[in-house]
Design goal:
Layout: E1 11-18, E2 21-28, E3 71-73, H1 84-91, E4 94-97, E5 105-108, H2 110-113, H3 116-130, E6 137-141, H4 145-156, E7 159-163, E8 173-180, E9 183-190, E10 199-207, H5 211-222, E11 226-235, E12 250-255
Parallel strand pairs: 1-3, 6-7, 6-10, 10-11, 11-12
Antiparallel strand pairs: 1-2, 3-12, 4-5, 8-9
Helix pairs in contact: 1-3, 3-4
Amino acid sequence: MSTLSTLSPPKILEAKTVSHCFFYSASSVKPNFFLPNPNATAARSSRRVKPLIYRGATGGAAAPERHSTSMAHMASSNVDGADDRISRISSSIRVIPDFPKPGILFQDITTLLLDPKAFKDTIDLFVERYKDKNINVVAGVEARGFIFGPPIALAIGAKFVPMRKPKKLPGEVISEEYSLEYGTDKMEMHVGAVQPGERAIIVDDLIATGGTLNAAIRLLERVEVTVVECACVIELPELKGRDKLGNKPLFVLVSSA
């Protein structure tokens, strides 16, 4: 089994915005958590990867130590790239190997939710970005978008609109089909939940391949809503999900290398 002794320390990145994409310059931060095998793909996807290495235990005899994503970065001109909120959020996210099936490294935000300060920091950073952008709609993608979307909507005075899987909404719906690796799925929204001309952000916990966010964009634009931006806590950049978003900007807090 390999060890962690040769891994590079995590980095806090300072953001620059160039044509709707965010680029970062790095400065080292003292590491205080364990990192996955650098050749592994940290993804909720079907790609085969080497398992994450845990060392030690916290919170119980068999509990793995929390693992943060390997890099944290901000894409907001209102917050300094070295803001300690970013490192706190990053270090509160745990990675679970071989879940929900072998070969997957699952980005687990439930440990972030167990940390009230990190959870509040997450919401605050989104609110700071969107509070003065005349957002009418916060659209949350099922299911973890339902965790982060409502408090953001309340704080900025917008309505929350759930974007759900098929046959979950009781009223008349409009739907958008999107491709999966093996087949297709649908995203649905209640008819009348949004109005033409409204301005929306789309919120989810993570962007991987970008398929669900792309479907949410298409669904809102079909009813003449302006999608201002997509917002996620975590990005898996190696899966190139932002390429699926067309010209829509993407705002993320934490990137997993």
